[in-house]
Amino acid sequence: MLSFNRMMTALNLLEDWNPIKEALHMLKSDRKKEMWMTETNKAIIIGGGIAGKLAARVLSDKFKEVIILEKDQKSMDPTPRKGARQGEHLHALLHAGQYGMEELFPGITEKFYSSGAIKINSTMDLSWYHHGGWKLRYDGGYTTTLQTRPHLEYHIEQYIEQIPNITSKYQVTVKNFLYQTDEYRINGVEIQLPNKKTEQIYADLIVDTSGATSLTSTWLHKKGITIPQEKVEIGLTYVSQKFNLPEDPKRDWKIKLIYPNPPQEKVGGTISKVEGDQYIVTMIGYLNAISEKEIIKKDDGFLELAKKLPKLDIYHELLHATPLTKPSIYRVPQIKWKRIDKVKAFPSGLLLMGDTICRIDPVFGQGMSIAVLEALALQKILQEQKGSLQETITAFHNKVAKIIAPIWKMVITEDFRYPDIIGKKPIELKIQQWYAKQIYLLSTEKRDIYDHFIKVMNLVEPISFLMKPRILGSVLRLRRIFVK
Predict the structure, then answer these.
(1) Above 60 in pLDDT, residue 11?
(2) Residues 6 or more apart in contact with residue 273 via CB below 8 angstroms
(3) pLDDT tens, residue by residue, 263-311
(4) Kind of pairing between the strands at 255-258 and 126-130
(5) How many helices (H) and strands (E) does the chain have?
(6) How many angstroms separate the Cα of 69 from the Cα of each of 19, 157, 396?
(7) What is the rounded average pLDDT of the residues 38-53?
(8) Boundaries of each FAD-binding domain copy (predicted)?
(9) Could you give the domains of the chain?
């Protein structure tokens, strides 16, 4: 009796017989589906950051072996990683991200709190100056967790280490993809070990979560595969520093956010309590408004920067604060959304996730929460998908585009308030900016509108939530219609 492979070879010789070619294609497809659904399989994840860990957690339910390849050393405690230069700056896990994180890692929220993270009332403990006005403060019934990124990432890693079919390899650099030209498929990676030796690892699925400068972009370009992109040049600079603050009975907040009012103001800042009874202060400046040299060369450079904020609240706090670290600087010249969902000739076996697909403006604190939403989407698709592995990948990339689209639209609506920011502007931009501005202003005096706005900002509700007839009526009734 002929083996399956020998039968394939024999049938492939009959190139001109279309009925046999069609039957053969169906036979191959059915066999691949059967293999995907029943055989032992392996997944490789490039990048052991938050998105990589989230992907590993989800894939461990479906794949019998999951390998994380991380270029950094293993973290022995919650300290910033060299490969995550943004780790020293303020991060936020929005409500949708926090709920999703708990769903993926049951009990992790309590782990955060028991090891020092700060639990706050989202609307009571946040003091927020936004577009020229202070938001209302009240008990809205929502909670938020304040912590540093290393603290959050460390606890995720502790959870990952308890999953027996996940293996992490550290100080490993992925040099190239292993590619099957005849099947147009990536089936592994070539890695460089700490001793500089190279090794090849094969797998059914390769997941790239290594970030905006990933191997995938370069590799696809060399193969002549063009990825449509949406790109906006924002010239953003982050400067952060940790402090101890003296006790102050008048301090009635846990986090204070001073947002610039575009287009006149380009510098904003946030001061947030984090674990260890410390405070992290992060300054942001659009369009290269922050001089890195002044921050580094001057002993009081960070304090002088705080003087440039629209309100001097953070400056006054820092006058009596004790620095715990030196200022750390991180630049985000541009934000970029790679439209993988629009690439028709995308190679099989490769899935992208996190910043590898979309690097969003970090000022809005949505990056980690988007990664959580993507992980939940992947989990659902894996649970429901009955087709081939490639159909699963395609379905995921299409779903990610639907997750990112409204968030991207919301972010660039704000970024384009600065006329000098370069990028493709939506036709309806002026109307969107006007309407959003009214929501911001009304949320300083109308609790129900602020409550709706908070849910949208925290990715719990879609942006259409702010277009409810009652909200729309408030905007049109209380604010004179004009377009600046």
Answers:
(1) no
(2) 118, 146, 254, 255, 279
(3) 999 999 999 999 999 999 999 999 999 988 888 878 888 999 999 999 9
(4) parallel
(5) 15, 20
(6) 44, 13, 22
(7) 86
(8) 42-384
(9) 237-337 (3.30.70), 415-478 (no CATH)
Beta-bridged to residue 134, according to DSSP, are 129
Query: pLDDT tens for residues 406-430?
Result: 999 999 999 999 999 999 999 999 9
* Angle ∠(271,336,131) on CA atoms, nearest 5: 40
pLDDT of residue 176: 95
Question: Under 8 Å CB-to-CB from 14, ≥6 apart: which residues?
Answer: 20, 21
Cα separation, 484 vs 481, in Å, equals 10
User: Do residues 474 and 442 touch, judged by C-beta distance below 8 A?
Assistant: yes
End-to-end CA distance of the chain: 78
446: its two tokens: 């109308």
pLDDT digits (tens, 9 = 90+) for 52-76: 999 999 999 999 999 999 998 887 7
Distances (CA, A) of 434 to 373, 428, 465: 29, 10, 17
Q: Three-state SS for 86?
A: helix
Widest distance between CA atoms in the chain: 86
**What is the C-alpha separation between 57 and 161, in angstroms, rounded?**
10
Q: Does residue 9 have a pLDDT over 90? A: no
Query: What six digits make up the tokens of 370?
Result: 């988007």
For residue 17, what are its two tokens?
A: 């017989």
pTM higher than the cut 0.85: yes
Beta strands in 47-147 (DSSP E): 65-69, 118-121, 126-130, 133-134, 143-146
Run of H or E including 33 = helix 18-38
DSSP letter string, 115-142: TTPEEEETTTSEEEEETTEEPP----S-
